[in-house]
Write a structure and sequence with these properties.
The chain is mainly alpha-helical. The protein has 5 helices and no strands.
Length: about 100
């Protein structure tokens, strides 16, 4: 199952690292505790819309861009999940269809 908080955290971490910024720098700019921002990035905490907007502001990123990237990641994960659930389980047989 796809967890939105994990995908959001991954995107925020990727963006922060691309900017070569530390958690401390971003947490200070966003006025969020370093520990809480770390938990958001690791997908352990759900960020409120206000907190997410503050983090995006600190990263100088439009919220829409972050959400778009999250949406793309979720879509990929859903496609993978769909393919995995469609595969037959090892050791199971498909019923034979009679030609009657």
């Amino acid at each position: 199952m796809v967890l939105l908080r994990q995908e959001i955290g991954d995107v925020l971490r990727e963006q922060r690292q691309q900017q070569s910024r530390t958690l401390r720098e971003v947490s200070a700019a966003a006025r969020v505790s370093l520990g809480y921002l770390s938990e958001v990035e690791r997908g352990q905490k759900e960020a409120s819309s206000e907190l997410l907007a503050s983090i995006c502001g600190a990263l100088d990123l439009p919220l829409s861009r972050v959400l778009s990237q999250v949406s793309e990641k979720v879509a990929v994960a859903e496609r993978i999940e769909t393919r995995l659930t469609a595969l037959p389980t090892v050791g199971t047989r498909r019923p034979l269809v009679s030609a009657a």
